[in-house]
Structure formats: C-alpha cells, structure tokens
Amino acid sequence: MNHWGLSLFLVYTVCLYTNVAVESVHDYYEYDQDEGDIKEQPEADLEQQLRSAASVDELMKIVYPNSWTMLKCRSKRGSRFGSRERFPAEPRSEEPPAFAAAYFNFEILKSIESEWRKTLCMPREVCLDVGREFGAATNVFYKPPCVSVYRCGGCCNSEELQCRNISTSYISKTLFEITIPVTQGTKPVTVSFANHTLCRCLSKPDVYRQVHSIIRRALPECNMTNKTCPKNHVWNNHICRCVQQPDIAVPSQHSRSESLQDDICGPNKELDEETCQCVCRRQLRASSCGPNQEMDKHSCQCVCKEPPVPCGPNQEFNRDACQCTCAKVCPRHQPLNPSKCICECTESPNKCFLKGRRFRQATCSCYRPPCEVRRRRCEAGFYFSEEVCRCIPTYWRRQD
C-alpha cells in the first residue's frame, strides 16, 4: 500500500512540473514578443543606432520610439495622460498601447544622464610629468615634477571615433630646474605647455589628417580609395567603408508612432516635447499655407484670412482664392474689366476711324456703312474697295 501511494505521489509531481514548465515557456514568449518597439528594425542598423546614442533621451527614443515622448510628459505633469475625448465610434480592434518603459524611475535616468555627461569628450585637468614631456636629460629634473594642464579625454559615442583636441593654447609655468651635480644651485625657468581648449570625437581618417597636416592638401577624404558598395549601401567618407542607406529604416515604426500620437492629440497633431501640449505637426505649420491663408491652431488646416475691410461694390469674398473677386455680370458687347470691376467698351470713335469704320454706341462696336456709289466696275488692274468706296490698284488688295 505504501508503494502504491508513493507511485501516485511521483506521477502527480511529474504532471505538476510539466504544467508549470509549459506555462513558464508560454509566458516567456509572450514577454519576448511585447518586450519593446525595436524588434522590427534590422539588427545591424539597430546596433549602429544604439552605439551612436549620445544621451539618455536619444537612447530611449531608439528603444521606445512610440511612447518615450508621452512618458516624459507624464513625468513633467505628474499625472496620467488621458486620451482625448471622442465622439462615440465603433470599437477598435487594436489593443491599447502598452508603455514598456513605464516602470522607469526618472530620478534614476537623471542620475545616468549626469554620469554620462561627466564622461563626454572634453578638456580635463590632468597632471603632466615635465621631464617626460620635454625629454629632459637624466641628470636634469624639475620641481615640482608635474604641472596641471588641460588635455582632451573622455568617451565617444562610437568605437570608431577618438577623443582628440581641435584647438590648443599655450600657457607658461615657472618651475625650478635642478642639474646634477649641483654647481650653480637651483634656478627658476619659465616653460610653455600645450593646453587643450576644445575637443571633438574624430574618425581615424580625420586623426590621420590632423597628425599629418603637412601633406593635408595631397590627402584624399579617406586614406583608402572608394569602392563599389553592395545593394542598399553607400560609401561613407567619414568612416571609410560602406554603410546602409539611412532611408532604409522601417517605415512601420514611424507610422505606429504617429498613430499613437493620433490617439492622444487627434489627426494632424503631435505631442510637443518641451511644452507637453498637442500642436500642429511640423509639416503643417503656417509656412505650408498659401497666400492670404493662415494655419488654424484648432483644426491644423489652412483657412482664409479674414479681409481687413469689407469687399467693395460688385465684389464678393471668394473662399477658394481667399480674396475679394468681381461678381459683376456684363453684356457681350461690354466685356468686364477685372481690375476695375466695371463693364467697359473696348472700342471708341477714334479706334473705329483708324480702321476706316464708324463707331456704334448702342452695341459698342465699329461698323462699315454701305457704299453709296452705284458704278462699281473698275478698269483692268484695279478693284472696287468697300472700305474706301472707290477703285484702287489690285496690288493694294489684302493678302488675307
């Protein structure tokens, strides 16, 4: 009986362990799928972005592109960011956005940012061994043996870059120079030391050009020749190798970020990082509007500016052109003058006279009165002209 009970206990233990293991594996894969927003990017491109991040803010934007801006605003405002009020609509099929970085303590992030800034490439105060710096003889030494100067130091955001000085000044320091054997005692000497005033992270080709400044004019952009790159890659003159084109980044990440901000701010708006207010998107600012138009801050659409004064007589405001246009209707014989918004006659007695015709006021046109000459036969080489009502040479006839 004891053996039978022990067997049942072992079977129950094995089944329980199997269920726990299956649930653990299931939970692990669920967590792995929701771990962040960066899974969609190509691995090499993502690694390059992460290594090039220059601050905590840049790093968080890469890891959590869809929610980092809103999380910062939550921290500033000290309350949860509620979705904007909407009119009742059909239930959406997507799941609500999950903020993977919500558990971050912003005080910890500030501490990391402070430490990050301390390690940036910048001039730092260091102790410089005077004898080693100038290569003094073994029987010559200085007191104090070291001086305090500034030299470039710190870390760059990419392993391909080096922290180097790009601007140098010289400072003078007075020291004691002692020579062995001591025959003349100690004497003070003034020595100039290089003091780095400006630092920058430079690539290896830039460092090479800086060191070999004598042959700078003959040196190409890279110390190696350009070469044909594979598909979707371009040659980078700074790091002297083929890199992926920057526009290969996955578009779905940007579209997902826009859709998240649409849920918060509405269409055509985005969350401003400085003020944490919903503002019109950058591409929808006032500069994108046409003449006589302005950007409506509420709808983020271009609307007509209201005219400073009412439109004149026979004019009305055209919403398409955003300006006052003439609305006067003119008869056919008196066409419209748009600049004056009046019906004007284009003919005049003087114009008609120059055409050999007469002016008719009723129709605002020129007309030719009928000839009263009865005899219209002309000699050879002449023809009868209705314009002058007489015979004129044939070679005067119009060609048309």
Automatic annotation (TrEMBL):
Its main location: secreted. It comes from the Eukaryota. SUPFAM superfamilies: Cystine-knot cytokines. Keywords: Angiogenesis, Cleavage on pair of basic residues, Developmental protein, Differentiation, Disulfide bond, Glycoprotein, Growth factor, Mitogen, Repeat, Secreted, Signal. GO terms for cellular component: extracellular space; membrane. Residues 1-24 form the signal peptide. Residues 107-206 form the Platelet-derived growth factor (PDGF) family profile domain. The keyword Signal applies. GO terms for molecular function: chemoattractant activity; growth factor activity; vascular endothelial growth factor receptor 3 binding. It is found in: Secreted. CDD domains: PDGF. Pfam families: CXCXC, PDGF. One of its GO terms (biological process) is positive regulation of endothelial cell proliferation. InterPro entries: CXCXC_repeat, Cystine-knot_cytokine, PD_growth_factor_CS, PDGF/VEGF_dom, PDGF/VEGF_growth_factor. Homodimer; non-covalent and antiparallel. Interacts with FLT4/VEGFR3; the interaction is required for FLT4/VEGFR3 homodimarization and activation. Belongs to the PDGF/VEGF growth factor family. Growth factor active in angiogenesis, and endothelial cell growth, stimulating their proliferation and migration and also has effects on the permeability of blood vessels. May function in angiogenesis of the venous and lymphatic vascular systems during embryogenesis, and also in the maintenance of differentiated lymphatic endothelium in adults. Binds and activates KDR/VEGFR2 and FLT4/VEGFR3 receptors. This is Vascular endothelial growth factor C. It comes from Conger conger (Conger eel).
